[in-house]
User: Fold this.
Amino acid sequence: MKVLVIGSGAREHALVWKLATSPNVTKVYCSPGNAGIAQQATLLNVDASNPLQLAEIADKEEIDLTVVGPEAPLVAGIVDAFSRRKRRIVGPTKAAAQLEGSKIFAKEFMARHHIPTADFTYCETPESAFDIISSGVYRFPVVLKADGLAAGKGVVIAQDAEEAFATIRRFMIDKSLGSAGTRLVIEEYLSGQEASLLVFSDGKDILPMPLAQDYKAAYEGNRGPNTGGMGAYSAAGMLPDKLLEQIISKIAEPTIAGMADEGRPFRGVLFIGLMLTDEGPRVLEYNVRLGDPEAQAVLMRLESDLLEILEAIVNEDLKSVRPCWSSDSTVCVVMAAEGYPGTPRTGDIISGLEEATKLDGVRIFHAGTKLDEKNRYVTSAGRVLAVTARHRALEEARKLAYKAVSTIDFPGKHYRKDIAEIR
Ligand code: AMP
Ligand code: GLY
Assistant:
């Protein structure tokens, strides 16, 4: 079977690596991929943001199954474009991807289906947003969220009215996020510990994955600006079973059932971002895809054939698979380029990759790498590598990941030193 992975980051590298181990996969393609992925897959040079061209190339290459990494092509309707051509693809349709594509849709959906989330209002105009803040119905801090896709830049926790007004002006009047910020969600601030649950779904049933913890802030101790994710770990027993059951029965299952009831069945990976409040778990956001770097940590624990799970999603027969997850722990440390999460410097030469790859239990997933004219790996984006290690004991997996990180070098590299540090 020929499979195609869409995207170009370390999450997609992990998908490519795992699929390449499947006995039924004869060839793996990736579009557009990166220099690391090119070692394991044939790259197609079509941008992930071009669904129609991707569907055409999948036809031409006679791809049997396509898997989509990032959210943008899903929200743009790539699954619909493939389905029209009868090409099998894993992911939600455009209508179902609205769970991530529109925060207003997601919040109203949760309200309709009594899925616990923060109290909210939404505004179509800056005037109504100013009025809501001035009215004092929400206490500070208050959370402001741009409605559309904003690559992690669309959420502001405003400490006072001044900051809230400035954000409303920036998003709704100055259009700093383009059309993503023309509508705004204003919501109650929740406190507690954050957790994410990722589930596979075929539109009817769900299959939860092991939990993974992401580190979003750029620097140690959760300081500094937000990033796409600086690392992750996954280990057995991260949440009490009872809490997990509650998240599944009160949130994950009603979400999938609600989407089916509304005629937009959700097939693919649903990522539920949660705040564990004193009143119980509340949904912060939905994503309609695997997390990056959560995917790297989680896929390293999958013992079974990933292809089988993906096929069961497309065949709407998820009940028939019972994947096996290792009880080992995994730790993923992201190595980033100078300047990230601002504008990264690129073109720095990376050394030590070969040595790090030789470490037992370590996989280096490439995120932003390319080959220069002398065939050397150089940096090409903000997140460069996702160095991932697996071991029976979390602390050993952590040591192993950092050992690999310390053998890799490039000018301006930076990474968090506290990934999976349990205090
Ligand atoms: P989101 O993209 O909606 O997950 O928001 C990004 C981050 O903002 C989350 O991971 C939380 O840390 C924070 N956040 C979002 N909504 C809330 C909320 N209602 N209360 C507190 N923090 C929030
Ligand atoms: N690591 C968070 C995300 O993929 O959205």
About this structure: Residues 214, 228-229, 287, 291-292, 294 surround glycine (ligand 2) (CB under 6 Å). The first strand starts at residue 2 and ends at 7. The CA atoms of residues 245 and 251 lie 10 Å apart. Residues 329-407 form a domain with the Glycinamide Ribonucleotide Synthetase; Chain A, domain 4 fold (CATH 3.90.600.10).
